[in-house]
Amino acid sequence: MFEQLGLIGCGLMGGSFALALKQAGLVKRVVGYSKSPSTTERACQMGVIDVAAPSALLAVSGADIVLMAVPVAASEATFKAIKHMVTPCMLIMDVGSTKGDVVEAAARGLREQVGSFVPAHPIAGKELAGVDNADAELYVGKQVILTPTEVTLSAHTQRATEVWSALGCKVVQMSPESHDAAFAAVSHLPHMLAFTLMNSVIGQSKGASYMGLAGPGFRDFTRIAASDPKVWRDILQANRAELLTQCQHFRDQLALFEAAMLAGDQQTLEALITQASTARAAWRMNQLP
Amino acid sequence: MFEQLGLIGCGLMGGSFALALKQAGLVKRVVGYSKSPSTTERACQMGVIDVAAPSALLAVSGADIVLMAVPVAASEATFKAIKHMVTPCMLIMDVGSTKGDVVEAAARGLREQVGSFVPAHPIAGKELAGVDNADAELYVGKQVILTPTEVTLSAHTQRATEVWSALGCKVVQMSPESHDAAFAAVSHLPHMLAFTLMNSVIGQSKGASYMGLAGPGFRDFTRIAASDPKVWRDILQANRAELLTQCQHFRDQLALFEAAMLAGDQQTLEALITQASTARAAWRMNQLP
């Protein structure tokens, strides 16, 4: 049970965490700060936060748990802004989709208080961002990746595990590097490919009429292309080394398809599709191997 | 109102057409043929067909409407098998995902009877194929593309339009070439990219553990990768010229992302994502521009 959650960023991810914590009876009070005053106001109206703080620093003041739910590129500035109120007993977490850059930002921003920070990535989201879509059930049944480093206080890692577990999440621990390599492959690259497909189609003179014919396969494949541009610019940029590696793997595999089609090699073509189809049919979300 | 539907191929697409036609009261009797006797038997049990025919030729005998719902690669052999029973008043349609190759197969297979054939592509499907998943509602609200050529009897094109409209479909007419170019862009390429992503991930030593972390974005992006290998081998191969062109467009667009990331050019990166995101957010299925 926590006394006070300091929430920095009251959007979908942060707002949902506050609601979930309240619903589970795990926090007495939520003090929230958002860059946009209208967001903070709305969060108050909705009961997502109890008190609006005028700054990130004051949102943290007196908190025993802090969630930083801001764009990853804003991490370092946020850590610096709150540093003077951070205490060793305060558990600080983020929700960013990349971890290596956030870990570095925490080291630079929190300095000797960095042990309080447990990097976290809940694998949850919605197409519709913003506090209006905050949902106490958003995290239920989802995976949360924690990427503590050698400077993280292990008591905090333990508490972070307990909090997310209490919200119904499956908690997985790994290094920031392993996290970023994995998510480059299964999240960041698919987003980049979905963006690329959209740009490829609309860049053609008949692109608009082509899209008018598209069906459910196109709908699902491109759903993630509607994601927030600033959020995804930051993610792609932050994880660019791993992402470029994954992109090269992808190009190599794509070349196998192209070569098989050019050669009219139906056997290879079928083998390539069978491999993909079998793997996808066997895959289940949230099941670690 | 038709007297008798000759159904060749009693799987998901063919079975659903028979059920829809019956439900709409548009046909008195369905005579069905499938390569696999167990499929025909199951189709009889389910009431999808009324009579099982021992051959494609005998399924066509006496029919005034014929639906050929077989893999596209089997088109020419099927046209040849039924040719001797085809009459000028018989309306013949297919449901293939490619049209140029089917039009050529019809010309070679049906010869002087080719005027009876109206090439059709209903934009509908399910992940689960087979007669067990046949559904009278499968085509409701979906688009159907008809690609008649200069040899198609216009009365048949008219009747084909009426039948699909009566089943609740939106009928669109275009040339086989335009069809194949459009579907290379919005269906065949996305399938190939989804297959490629699966192969790219599972081809890495840590691929299985990466996939264990994948979330809803990966799930939707790769859904079509579970498609039937033989069906998609045929589609990719049949439409390979258009598909290779689309693949090159895609590679060019992907290179823009890679270059922006390598250069750390956040402005270009954001502009690329914004373009994709805006286009996807504005897109609505089944709305022609």
TrEMBL record, chains A, B:
Any one GO MF annotation of this record: prephenate dehydrogenase (NAD+) activity
PROSITE patterns found in the cross-reference section: PDH_ADH
Ranges for domain Prephenate/arogenate dehydrogenase: 3-289
GO biological processes: tyrosine biosynthetic process
Keywords from the named record: Oxidoreductase
InterPro entries for this protein: 6-PGluconate_DH-like_C_sf, NAD(P)-bd_dom_sf, PDH_C, PDH_N, Preph/Arog_dehydrog, Prephen_DH
Pfam families: PDH_C, PDH_N
PANTHER family according to UniProt: PREPHENATE DEHYDROGENASE, PREPHENATE DEHYDROGENASE [NADP(+)]
Name of protein: Prephenate dehydrogenase
The species this protein was found in: Rhodoferax fermentans
